[in-house]
Amino acid sequence: MAGIGVIFNPRSGHNLRDPRASRRLARTLGDHGEVREAGSLDQLYRVAEDFRRLGIDVLGISGGDGTNGVAITGFLDVYQGSALPQIAFLRGGTMNTVANSVGVRRGPPEGLLNRLVRAYVARAAQPLKDAPRHVMRLRGDKARPLPNQEASTPPLAEKYGFLFGTGVVYGFLSEYYRGGPPNPVVAAKTLLRGVGSAVIRGETIRRMAAPFRGSVELEDGTVWEERDYLAIAGGTIDQIGLNFRPFHRYAERPGAFHLLGIHSSPVSFVSQLPRIWRASPMKPGHSYDATPLQAMIRSPKKNIQYMVDGDLHECDGPLHVSVGPKVRIVVGT
C-alpha cells in the first residue's frame, strides 16, 4: 500500500483534549492511507513495522515536538538505514517548534492532513515539496524511563531530535510542565516568571537555572573546559521555542549542528534574549560557539539530565551528540 500513514498520539496535548480527533483524521484521509494510534513505544514499533511493510510514501505525525522526535527515533530504528518516507508534521501537540522553524503551515491537524491529501493526489504533476533537515543522534549510558513511560517498555538507548539542551533548557521545561496543562500561554508566563526571578535573584530562577557542571569535547579536539554552564545546547534548526532563535548557524556547515556552551549568569543571559530572538549572536563573553559534527558532553556527576525536542530525559554520562540521518519534512501544502 503506497499512500499516507498517519501516527496519532492520543497523549499529546491537543489530542488529549479532543478524543474525536483520531476519527476526524481517518475520515479526512479516506482511502489514501491509514491512521494508527501509538500511545507507547511498543505500539509505535508495531506501527513502524507495518508501515514499512506497506511501503507508505508519506509519514504523517499528529502530535507535537516530543511525538515527532520519538516517532522519528522509532522509525529510524525499524528502517535500519533505509531512507524514511517524507514526513508531514500535522501538529496536534503543545509544542510545535520544529514545524514552525521549517515553515510548516499553521492549522488544526485535520486541516493540514486535508491539504496533504490533495497535494498527494496531485503529486504526479506537482511533487510534494520538502525541507531536508538532519536530526541529531544522542546516546548516553543506562537511559532511564520517562515518568509517563510504561514500566514494561525499556527507554530507547539512542534518541534522535532537532534540539537538545542541558541546564536551564532542562530546567525551564521542568518548570513549564509544573505550571498546569502546557500551552503557549503557560510557556510565556514561565519565561516571564523566570526573567523576573532572575532580576531579583529569586527561588524560581535558582530552580530553573541550576547550572550544568561539565565539559565538552568536539571532534576536532577542541575542549570547552569543565565549569558551570547555564546550558549546553544545540540544534539542527534555528528556533528553540517562543520564536527565540539561538541556533542561527545551524545551516552554516553542511551536515553539522550549532552548539552553544552558555556560561553567563542568569541575569546576564536575560540581557541577551533580545539578540537571541533576532537570531543574532550573543555578545562576547557569554558563550562558546561551534558547528561540530559530533560532541561529547561529560559531567563529574554520574547523572546527566537533558531535553530532546521538548521531552525530558536522564542518562549516565558521558552524553554523545552527533549528526544523524537527513529527513525530508513536507512543507508548502
Automatic annotation (TrEMBL):
Pfam families, alphabetized: DAGK_cat (PF00781)
Signal peptide: none
Transmembrane portions of the chain: none
Name by which UniProt lists this protein: DAG-kinase catalytic domain protein
PROSITE patterns to which the protein is assigned, alphabetical: DAGK
Organism, scientific name: Labilithrix luteola
Top-level taxon in the UniProt lineage: Bacteria
GO molecular function terms listed in the Swiss-Prot or TrEMBL record: kinase activity
Key words, A-Z: Kinase, Transferase
Domain DAGKc span(s) in chain numbering: 1-142
